[in-house]
Amino acid sequence: MNKWYAIALSACLMSSVLALPGAASAAAAEKPVRVFLDGKPIKFEAPPLVEDGTTLVQFRPIFEKLGLRIGWNEDTQTVTGTRDDLMIKLIIDDTGAYVNERPTELELPPRLVDGNTFVPLRFVGEASGKEVTWNEKTSTIYLRTPKNVGKTTDPSKPVKGEYAFPDGTKYTGQLVNGYPEGTGKLYDEKGKLLFEGTMSGGLPADGRLRSYYDNGQLEFNGTIKDGVWSGSVKQYMTSGSLMFDGTYVNGEREKGTLYSETGDKYVGPFDNDLPNGTGKITYDSGDVYEGDVVDGVREGKGTYTTAKGEKVVGEFKNNTLNGLVSHYDRKGTLLSVSEYSNDILISKVDMTSESSTLPNTNTTTQPAPLKIENERHDKAISLLKTQYNENKKKVENQIAQIRKSNPGTYATKASYDRALKDANAKQEEILEKMGSLPLDNSVTAEAARVELEKQLIETQELLAQIIAKGSVQQQIQALRDQLTLLRESYTEAVKRENEQHAEMVKKLK
């Protein structure tokens, strides 16, 4: 099931913003961008901004038109929009955002421009369940309520709608509390069907799942149960050739046919994803082995039949003859009985008047060098991708946990520095007032001293809170830096592997 990392990877809302083609960006620069919601124009005091193909708009008008109650936290520079079934949280100058407390990453953060707060339009629109489209000719953005979206007064009941994930994956089907839950379909960013069935917690649970290689070739096509492969499953090579056709149980192969690029195939049971049990191996040469198989090799009792019809019946170990072996001709006549140890003949008794030679049971067709290189390359890329997605998910989970455990975290270091400066100034002001009080024991002086001491304690507590929040913000930024390094390292490793593969292919052709 490690291949689902490219789909589901974690379930969160699509954080992409409205990306306009290059020509559209130029058009937007010439014409003011207009925004319509269900056919009605939305008026903004400040015109929308278009930057590098991204559209940002004033948050208050768009939130109000979408029926969201507006919230603003000055200390954390946080904008919130809420309604019964939805809460959107955006932080100024921060690409981290939340939808119903689920973290997601924006491509462009909200910002303050001339006293106005601007937010990414596509993110807000799609988080609210709207379809967002762009008309290049008129420089117009349309937000529409999907026709198939049901309505309910109970957000915990499923409704039909759409949901978008950060990697471009889109879901159509039942939603609960605005999140995929129930029956539906999942598509990749190019519109290819990935999953059809039941979603649970925003992830595919029961149904038919498809996954693809980076080159677009289908890799897996089968059924899953409780989020893992279970039932009929087909797996393909990057070349498009069938690799496995059979059944899975709890995410592992149970029984079926396994094909190799060399033309060999195995039919039988599996254990720990490897051929194990009594099975049949048909080699590209036409030879056939039927018998015991352990971890993909001949191990135990079995019969090796050559393409010419001769049979070797006996014991095998690690693909070699090991023990008593009987040799028959194509008519079934016993020719000899021999004893082998690790493919070395120990003794032999001929059963006919003529001496016979056992056929070579180790003459399987060797794979072509180019096939070997392609297989190595596929495994290398798959391993790099798996490691990257696993490490990325770990870091993202750490960020989500930190934010969940520390609500109100500062969005940026600038916000933290400003809050810290204000609190320190307040403390100095209080200390100066305390130092200027008369040294008598008058009632007014004592009352003033008590009040200032109270204010000082409150200010010092505030300072401690600010410093603590600043520390959390630094932790989050450090983790974001890790994500950047992981992405850069993964990209560089894939590039090196592709270059190495291209060079090897060039030499082998």
UniProtKB/TrEMBL annotation:
UniProtKB keywords: Coiled coil, Repeat, Signal
Pfam families in the record: Cu_amine_oxidN1, MORN, MORN_2
First and last residue of the signal peptide: 1-19
Domain Copper amine oxidase-like N-terminal: 37-143
Coiled coil ranges: 449-500
PANTHER family registered for this protein in UniProt: RADIAL SPOKE HEAD 1 HOMOLOG
Record protein name field: Copper amine oxidase-like N-terminal domain-containing protein
Taxonomic path: Bacteria, Bacillati, Bacillota, Bacilli, Bacillales
